[in-house]
Amino acid sequence: MRISENQLKYIIRNVILAEGAITPELLGDDYMVVIQDSGIVNRPLKSLGRIDLKQRFGHIDPNTIVSMPSYSLQIKNKIDTDKLPGPVYQVMAELEMRKWNGMCNNAWEIYWADVDKDYEGGGFGPLMYDVAMELAGRHGVICDRNSVSNDAARVWNYYLSRADVFTDDIDIENCPSDMLSTNDRISIESGGEHPWHQKVYFSTHYIAGNLKPTLDALNRLDRIEYISRRYPGEK
């Protein structure tokens, strides 16, 4: 029986979904991962965990400006068409991350991620999270402090079972989180396990030997582009 191209794509996509993240080696020549240094972004503290900030962190001025190093990640796909003079790239997956300094274990917060619906289930989301985790290095990554979609929750729970990822508990007394329920707090204070959304996730490769296998593979395969931010005074 002959398998159509669409059937083959469906089979590959489901195999990737079962295994988790697509690996750099499985990315075709038409794909590129873009890492952009977004510089230091200043945000009012009241925008970072709005409800919980009022309930448990009333001693902190909500108008305090927090300076957060930030990265933007994209996965782009090249499209060739006869209607245009040359190939164009479409962004089919994006991720935004920012670093807490002095709070939330100094971790990097992945506060937004999205995969185009035509590429959902293809393993591109976990690939971006792998890249983000290696960029975060010894500080690790945490989920959005305000809310997490069902798709993102599945990714975080997937990492709980990954052999090359380990977790540490967030200091809940120093990290606002609108997802931390009263029952969660009571359980934690009684010695219970922190839920997945109150953990910091680390790459064991980086912690064990400052290794970055995903980034190294993307570099080796020429599947990565770095965009550095220019600061005042730089040429």
Detailed description of the structure:
The protein is built from seven helices and eight strands. The protein is an alpha/beta fold. It has one domain (5-227). A hairpin with an 8-residue loop joins strand 3 (88-99) and strand 4. The longest helix has 15 residues, at 5-19. 27% of the residues are buried.
What's this model, at a glance?
The chain is an alpha/beta fold and 235 residues long. The chain is built from 7 helices and 8 strands, in the order αβαβββαβαβαβααβ. The chain has helices at 5-19, 50-56, 124-136, 150-160, 182-189, 204-209, 213-220; strands spanning 31-44, 65-79, 88-99, 108-115, 141-143, 165-169, 199-203, 224-227.
Average pLDDT, all residues: 85
Distinct helical segment count = 7
- C-alpha geometry: globular
How many domain regions?
Answer: 1
Strand adjacency order, main sheet: 5-4-3-2-1-8
Q: Please give the radius of gyration in angstroms.
A: 19 Å
**End-to-end C-alpha gap:** 60 Å
State the low-pLDDT regions, or none: 5-19, 231-235
Portion in helices: 25-40%
Biggest pleated sheet: 6 strands, mixed
Class per helix and strand makeup: alpha/beta
Order of helices and strands: HEHEEEHEHEHEHHE
Tally of DSSP β-strands: 8
Q: What percent of residues are in strands?
A: 25-35%
List its salient traits.
235 residues; alpha/beta; six-stranded mixed beta sheet; two-stranded antiparallel sheet; 29% helix; 28% strand; globular; disordered C terminus
